[in-house]
Specification:
By secondary structure, the chain is an alpha/beta fold. The chain starts with a strand and ends with a helix. The model has no long low-confidence stretch (mean pLDDT 87). Helix content is 55%, strand content 19%. The protein has 20 helices and 15 strands. Among the domains are: 193 residues, P-loop containing nucleotide triphosphate hydrolases (Rossmann fold, 3-Layer(aba) Sandwich); 156 residues, no CATH class; 35 residues.
């Protein structure tokens, strides 16, 4: 629930901190005192769009902070999805905005965005105001009341998974419906590309090998001359000895004294190993010379191959690996298009199966909604009858429609407020007072299914008076037994039922307007109720009546 709201530099409020209690909290005050500013501030902390006009005159920034205790499970899950934790089951939302248009949002001290505030806020507070009957005035949203009362979220999730599968297959099928001429053109192009790449017989690493071969051929004479010199240095020529002969002579000489000079044995062994090593080097050089002389491919053939790879690379990818990948993908697409009719029919069958599965789930969901709709109409009608609308008729019209994300139902609430009149759409006939009482009735019916801990009713008493307002108050009190309720009201009968009563008052000092919020004690409540009842001048009669209202509630 909302435990504290701190407001700074918003409209006529310079600074105020409000500690809300459990149960029913009411806010009263004269017209223009600033009651709407409280609601605007709460909307701001819930991520709604803000205007620079909200910032107090002469100030550059405004700030709102709201502290919530024991948030519902959905709020906690949403926080975790965005990387936030509720420390000790406390969530603190903060928002600062400035005349420059820049702003900052925080959740438990960590930076956030207005979008995250909105995502979390929908599970913390639900606001209904006299200008916010959007849900009731929007028939497409009426289905949500039925689903919530019937606790159909599991059925809806199962249906939506099947519907998503169907939509995916349908999109794939629509994409597969090639124009025949276009399909033939595509087949011709792919056939040419596949044939060109297959004939090239590319393999990974070939390009690097070709570059190496080209370098060898271009430097053939230099390589042959160097290898010839190495062979002569190692094995000698017609008239000279090479390194091998010299080492063998040295080895023979040192070996001749090993029998009489033991220290020479190690050197003799090392020289013999050197002979073997040099002989191996010589043999490898001879083999290299033979390879260099073989010239398997001419330079012209290598250049042609390199040119071919470069030309293909400009069309199919800069590397052979990418060209081979292109070839593999082209083969697959070509095979698919060549088996077009067979593949399309299989896809169409899968799509039909998915549609039928989604349709069956939608019909099952529709049957459950029809049963719940009867309960909803009956319960809401009873609540509205209690709220001084005894002749109201309420019908939930449920029509079949094309499959959509909600199922196969079009749901709309119809009402008739007067005997003998046929029920009609809410948006066409409901007055402001009727809308307020209808929303309160629906909230009361859905109270046990709604996880949101705090409900705010902004002037829910608009258009009603007398006994009706007292009954509205009693309903608000009833709702507040299971959750926190904040109510902005002009009716003394409603204000008298509050567990916490806040007065919003405006004062002028040094040419500036200030609004303050005060938690009233018994005496303060009596005076405020008397003001609401009788206007500016309080009489003994209004004070006595106010005392009577309070005593009835307190006793």
């Amino acid at each position: 629930m909302l435990t504290n709201l701190y407001i700074e530099n918003i409209a006529v409020i310079e600074k105020t901190s409000i500690d809300f209690g459990k149960g029913l909290n009411v806010l009263t005050g004269e017209t223009g005192a600033g009651k709407s500013i409280i609601i605007d501030s709460i909307n701001a902390i819930l991520g709604s769009r803000t205007s620079r006009d909200l910032i107090r005159n002469g100030c550059d920034t405004a700030f709102v902070s709201a502290e919530f205790s024991d948030p519902c499970e959905k709020a906690l899950q949403t926080l975790q999805e965005y990387g936030f934790d509720a420390e000790d089951d406390v969530v603190i939302l903060q928002r600062e905005f400035s005349t420059t248009g820049k702003g900052r949002c925080r959740i438990n001290g960590r930076p956030a965005t207005a979008a995250v505030l909105r995502a979390v806020g929908v599970y913390l507070i639900n606001i209904h105001g006299q200008h916010e009957s959007y849900e009731l005035m929007s028939p497409e949203l009426h289905i949500n009341y039925i689903d919530k009362l019937g606790r159909l979220s599991g059925d809806i999730a199962e249906y939506q998974a099947a519907y998503k599968k169907y939509r995916s297959l349908k999109a794939e099928l629509d994409k597969a419906k090639y124009d025949e001429a276009e399909r033939e053109r595509r087949v011709d192009l792919l056939s040419y590309q596949v044939n060109e790449l297959e004939q090239a017989e590319l393999y990974e690493g070939e390009y690097e090998q070709l570059l190496e071969q080209r370098m060898l051929i271009e430097n053939k004479e230099k390589i042959a001359s160097a290898l010839s010199e190495v062979r002569e240095f190692l094995n000698g020529g017609d008239e000279t000895d090479g390194a091998i002969q010299s080492l063998e002579g040295a080895c023979d000489s040192i070996s001749s004294i090993t029998s009489v000079y033991q220290d020479a044995e190690g050197i003799a062994e090392r020289l013999q190993n050197a002979v073997y090593e040099i002989e191996d080097c010589y043999n490898e050089v001879v083999a290299m010379s033979e390879d260099a002389d073989s010239d398997v491919e001419s330079l012209e053939e290598i250049e042609d191959r390199i040119d071919l790879i470069n030309r293909l690379g400009r069309k199919y990818g800069p590397t052979i690996a990418e060209m081979l990948e292109f070839l593999e993908n082209a083969r697959k697409e070509l095979e698919y298009l060549e088996r077009y009719e067979e593949n399309r029919e299989a896809l169409a069958q899968n799509c039909r199966n998915a549609y039928n599965e989604a349709l069956e789930l939608a019909k099952s969901l529709s049957d459950k909604r029809r049963e719940v709709a009867r309960q909803f109409a009956s319960q809401v009608k009873a609540e509205m009858s209690y709220l001084d609308m005894p002749n109201v008729e309420l019908v939930v019209r449920q029509d079949r429609c094309e499959l959509n994300s909600s199922g196969c139902d079009s749901v709309e609430i119809l009402i008739s407020a007067n005997p003998g009149e046929d029920p009609k759409p809410v948006a066409k006939i409901a007055s402001g007072g009727e809308l307020s009482r209808m929303m309160l009735a629906i909230k009361n019916v859905l109270a046990d299914t709604d996880d949101i801990d705090t409900l705010i009713f902004d002037e829910v008493d608009t258009g009603i008076s007398g006994s009706a307002s007292q009954k509205v108050g009693l309903k608000l009190k009833e709702v507040s037994r299971s959750r926190q309720v904040l109510c902005v009201t002009h009716q003394a009968q409603i204000a008298a039922l509050a567990g916490s009563h806040f007065k919003i008052a405006k004062t002028v000092k040094d040419g500036k307007t200030y609004t303050g919020v005060t938690l009233l004690d018994h005496e303060g409540r009596r005076n405020e109720l008397a003001r609401i009842i009788g206007g500016v001048e309080m009489t003994k009669a209004t004070l006595d009546y106010a005392e009577e209202l309070l005593s009835q509630v307190e006793n």
